[in-house]
Amino acid sequence: MVEPVSTPSVILVLHDVAPHTWADYQPFVEAVDALGNVPMTWLVVPDFHKQNALDAHPGFRRLLGSRLARGDELALHGYFHCDDSPAPQSPRDWFMRRIYTHEGEFYGLSQNAALARLHAGIELFQRYHWPLRGFVAPAWLMSQGTRQALCQLPLAYTSDPQHLYRLPDFTPVDAPGLVWSSRSAWRRGLSKVLSEQREQRWRHAPVIRLGVHPVDLRHGSSRNYWLQTLKRLLAEGRVPMTKANWLTTQARLNRGKP
């Protein structure tokens, strides 16, 4: 029996999708659309920083609905995308929540608190008839309570920077990702060097994820990097897919193995 072979893929992921970040994303999305059929995974925040509730923005919701009709995927990306838990108590937690990021919303949540926010996000997707298969925690930070909560919900996957995890059992699937830190010129310079090295190291990987953030698109160097990298990977023969569709394809291939 011949073992099935997967065509190398690329997954374009738009982080922190909310009404107020659309101005950053719109020119980039239009440039990607001009390349042809390149499906994207949009990580949608229901109420970004408690100031951008999707319920109050029908025009943006229609836009997201139109992206689904094009073949894109919408995934749940936290609920508020801000860390409103009590102040950190340990040096490690202080570093993770005040130095590494201020947006680790699910880093300190109990199981019940995580369940409440996840249920609220799922209900929002259901309200607007958006299919939902994936959840990505802001900054990829999840407490043990969050992990326990995800095991109880009808979601197919979550992720961290280098893996996708099939739910409910958190089965890891290698899916290396490129991501930039674009808050300053030196960070952008370092990000470019590191990303180029990683792309070379992963040139034979079955999939490469491109994790784009709104701040990346406010600077010419990072904006151009993402568009040129996507073009190059497509020219090399990588097939563009959403996270959900890539996982479905991998599961089908694995079922066909001897």
Summarize the structure.
With 258 residues, the protein is an alpha/beta fold. Helices cover 41% and strands 16% of the residues.
Can you offer a commentary on this structure?
The chain has 258 residues and is of the alpha/beta class. It has a single domain, classed as TIM Barrel, CATH 3.20.20. It contains eight helices and nine strands. It has helices at 22-33, 58-70, 91-100, 111-127, 144-150, 185-201, 220-235, 243-255; strands at residues 9-17, 40-44, 73-76, 157-160, 163-166, 171-174, 177-179, 207-212, 239-240.
How are the elements arranged and paired?
Blueprint: E1 9-17, H1 22-33, E2 40-44, H2 58-70, E3 73-76, H3 91-100, H4 111-127, H5 144-150, E4 157-160, E5 163-166, E6 171-174, E7 177-179, H6 185-201, E8 207-212, H7 220-235, E9 239-240, H8 243-255
Parallel strand pairs: 1-2, 1-8, 1-9, 2-3, 7-8
Antiparallel strand pairs: 4-5, 5-6
Helix pairs in contact: 4-5
